[in-house]
Amino acid sequence: MDKNGDEILVGRAKAGSESAFAELVRNYREKAVHIAWGITGDEQVAEDISQESFIKIYRSLKNFREESKFSTWFYRIVVNLAVDYQRRKKLRSYIPLMKIREPVEPRNPALELKAGEFNRVVQNVLERLSAKQRAVFELKNFQGMALDEIARIMKCRTGTVKSHLFRAVEKMRKELQDRET
After folding, report:
1. pTM score > 0.85 for this model?
2. Which of 54, 72, 106, 168 has a beta carbon 3.0–4.6 Å from 68's, enabling a disulfide?
3. Of the options 3.30.420.40, 1.10.10.10, 3.30.70.120, 1.10.1740.10, the CATH number for the domain spanning 3-89
4. For 97-180, CATH number?
5. CB-CB neighbours of 125 under 10 Å
6. Is the pLDDT of residue 161 over 50?
7. How far is CA 136 from the centre of its chain?
8. Which residues 6+ apart lie within 8 Å of 106 measured at CB?
């Protein structure tokens, strides 16, 4: 959804339009679930976090001052809830990457085996990342967000986002290099 469309829907929802809020839910639900799933590694928890995010938005929409884009505000809520969940449970869960990204049809069994091994290595590394590193990695690599947008979502400096991303990528690179040798 473009910024103008969001502004119109938010304005209508703030004025009490249930259909406008329902459209915001339709527009953001799938992405919210993917972000929460990428951080928590649990599909059911991601669904719950998505629902909790919409409840929180519904209750506080009248206080949204529109100083930032609605999407930034919404994703900040999703990320915060997911990171808080990770902190509370101290989980480093399995992330089913094959469910997040459709697998490319392998051309031969050797490629299929190598792709499966690669996904296992990636999953193992993601499990060991901190909740914030995992959130940044998810938002950048799976959601395609820009670093400055991630910084606004996570309420930190772009340099902090770069640091989290750098550490996550370095852990990934080291693990993959160790596997090759």
Report:
1. no
2. 72
3. 1.10.1740.10
4. 1.10.10.10
5. 20
6. yes
7. 8
8. 112, 115
